Fold:
Amino acid sequence: MKKILISPSILSADFSQLGIEIKRLEQNGADMIHVDVMDGHFVPNLTIGPPVIKALRNHTSLPFDVHLMISPVHKYIKDFAEAGADIITIHPEATDDLDKSIKLIKHFKKKVGISLNPDTKIEIIKDYLSEIDLVLVMSVYPGFGGQKFIPEILKKIENLKKIKDDKNLNFNIEVDGGVNFDNSKSIINAGANILVSGTTIFKDNNGDIKKNIDTLKTM
Ligand code: DX5
Ligand code: ZN
Structure:
């Protein structure tokens, strides 16, 4: 049985008490914390940066799964690594040298993720799949929580999983955006092993985080 990990997105958390919120996630079964960093340039929204990640670092021992929706991204990798990120995921469109950025993340001994927007083809990262720890497949256009899952992404997940199996690679397939109780089973069956969720985890079942995480895991 494939182990499914849940990475709740704190974009949907109460920003006035993020430390308490991530403790709640840890106590209720989260496997890692998905931190959505947005710069108002790569995506039309602004969230948090390294100082907040640094402030949150000692509130949990869970890995920080940091999703950098910022551009240019290369010059900020050091700051996020030193602030306490464990996984640093970047968008290929946000760096002019993907190989150099991957190497820099590894230099800081962090896990490397590459994120594919809905319109970005697997093709452009095919040559890097053996060097990275994670592909973050966006199932919404990045920038906001609470959007609707794009069903065509299921085929993309299947295609990615086929490449992973055919080449005997071991990167994780993480899916991000609009994941809920109706689609999580199809997403897992398509080949994902990590699910990001913000709205469903924080809002469904009157905000019963434990129930929502357990339900996503066992669908
Ligand atoms: C969107 C972010 C996602 C989002 C997920 O740009 O990358 O992580 O917060 O939130 P939901 O689960 O509400 O779609
Ligand atoms: Zn995200």
Q: What stands out?
A: The domain at 5-218 is CATH 3.20.20.70 (TIM Barrel).
